[in-house]
Amino acid sequence: MTQIHPPAEDLDVDIRFLLANERTLLAWLRTALTLMAGGVALAQFAGDRLLAQLVGLSLLGLGSLGGVIGYLRFRATGRAIRAGQLPTAGHGPALMTVAIIGLVTAVVTAYFLS
Fold first, then answer.
1. Residue 57 domain-assigned (yes or no)
2. Domain count, the chain
3. By the 8 A CB rule, do 94 and 66 touch?
């Protein structure tokens, strides 16, 4: 038996959920922008140090990825809220955490080995 959902205009959505979803998107974008700014600064001042340039470019890519993940989560959560369902957890936060820990581990290892 299929569920019948009311049209979006008839659904009584609590605006607080939509605003919280928007604030979460903004937090993702702030984090992404911070990672990208750090990456640009590091790449700019790295000079001829290859490791610093690579870390800077990695931060730039990680920030870009964070912005995309944040937007996709925002859209999926908005759809779930309007459908009266719980949003799925997703893998974005875990992916960002693993990537940042991996980058930091590589930098610390390279620092101590040089």
1. yes
2. 1
3. no
Residue 71 lies in a domain: yes
pTM over 0.70: yes
CA–CA distance, 76 with 74 (Å, rounded to integer): 6
- Rounded distance between C-alpha atoms, residue 87 and residue 9, angstroms: 20
Full domain range(s) for residue 68: 15-113
Asked if residue 86 lies in contact with residue 34, where contact means CB atoms within 8 angstroms, the answer is: no
Could you read off the pLDDT tens digit of each residue along the chain, which spans 114 residues? 555 555 555 567 889 999 999 999 999 999 999 999 999 998 998 888 888 899 999 999 999 999 999 999 999 999 999 998 999 888 999 999 999 999 899 888 877 877
Name the token pair of 16.
Answer: 């607080």
